Amino acid sequence: MNRANADEAAFWNAEAGENWVAHQPDMDTLFAGVTEALIAAAAPQAGEAVLDIGCGAGGSTFVLAGRVGPAGSVTGLDVSAPLLAHAEARRRALGVGNVRFVQGDAQDHRFEGGLDLATSRFGVMFFADPQAAFRNIAGGLRPGGRLVFVAWGGPEHNPWFALPRRAAVARLGPEPPAPADAPGPMAFRDAGRVVGLMQAAGLSACAADTVDLDLHHPGGVDTVLGLLSRIGILPKMMQAKGASPADSAAIFDAIRAGLDAFRSDDGIRIPARVHLFSGSLADGSRAP
Questions:
Q1: What ranges do the domains of the chain cover?
Q2: Which DSSP letter does residue 283 get?
Q3: pTM for the structure as a whole
Q4: Which of 100, 127, 164, 213 could form a disulfide with 234, with the two C-beta atoms 3.0–4.6 Å apart?
Q5: What are phi and psi of 126, to 5 degrees?
Q6: Which CATH superfamily includes the segment(s) 6-153+180-214+274-280?
Q7: What is the tens place of the pLDDT at every residue in 5-46?
Q8: What is the per-residue pLDDT for 95?
Q9: What percent of the chain has pLDDT over 90?
Q10: Residue range 105-148, pLDDT digits in tens
Q11: Which of left, alpha, beta for 136 (phi over 0: left; psi -120 to 50: alpha)?
């Protein structure tokens, strides 16, 4: 279990996973537009068998379940035990019968096959070997089955990442250099590279569609600032640099000033850019 991506598994089974559980309603609200774009691109149909990769607390899983209906099924797969426990509690509270949650890593999980659709909302950028992961996922698809997922564009188009990083670096100094395609939220910023990885994994009709949208939350700047203090790159950077209370105050003042530009009549709307990727397993073919 989690042999391929042990560091990511450890990360999401510790404080990071607990923080997402604590803030799940706000994160699902903030990412609602992303979920809507993903579902529109994936076009799940009644009766289909669907895999939701990196399902987390089920934000996209339950939407998929509603689309495939009682004749269909959705399996939510994630490495994080805290997030999956929360997702299962939500499933029971909602009375959703066509969903199950499984702890596992899509890079090396043994799929039974026969999936009509595999999809993911920000759950596929953390693989140590994305080509191997895509090959493994393709092996779970039936001939004609689809893989559709959404990943972040570059930080220059995503203030959700750029603002806290810029504020932290200005106060605490730069981070150690890392490869642009290292596992993490920005790993799939180069859409052409990712399409090539999908093709090399045996998928056909691979394509990427770049979409600009808003991360909207009616709670406004204060709510988003609270999320950034617990989720994303900022807590990790501040811990690594040993940020003092004075450092924290200065960093959050700078982030607040940046977020003020995105205030709206209905809260806050942070511009974002994502890539919607799609591919399929050709009829009569098998993943290599």
A1: 6-153+180-214+274-280
A2: T
A3: 0.93
A4: 164
A5: -110, 5
A6: Vaccinia Virus protein VP39 (3.40.50.150)
A7: 777 778 767 777 788 889 999 999 999 999 999 999 999 999
A8: 96
A9: 82
A10: 999 999 988 999 999 999 999 998 999 999 999 999 999 999 99
A11: alpha
Q: How does pLDDT run across 78-91, given as a tens digit for each residue? A: 999 999 999 999 99
Residue type, 113: G
Cβ count within 10 A of residue 11: 16
**For residues 176 and 41, what is the distance between their CA atoms, to the nearest angstrom?**
37
CA distance 203 to 286: 9
Per the CB < 8 A criterion, the answer to whether 73 and 98 are in contact is: yes
Express the helix, strand and coil content of the chain in percent, nearest 5 each.
45, 25, 35
Lookup: tokens for 82: 């805290």
- 14 in helix, strand or coil? coil
**E-assigned strand segments in the chain:** 49-53, 73-78, 99-103, 115-121, 141-152, 204-217, 263-264, 267-280
Residue 86 in 3-state DSSP? helix
Pull the structure tokens for residue 220.
């406004």
Indicate the average pLDDT of the chain. Answer: 93
What confidence category does residue 1 fall into, taking pLDDT thresholds of 50, 70 and 90?
very low
Tokens of residue 94, six digits: 């909602």
Which amino acid would we find at residue 195?
V
- Counting every residue written for the chain, the total comes to 288
The Cα–Cα gap between 244 and 282 comes to 55
The secondary structure of residue 262, as a DSSP letter, is: G
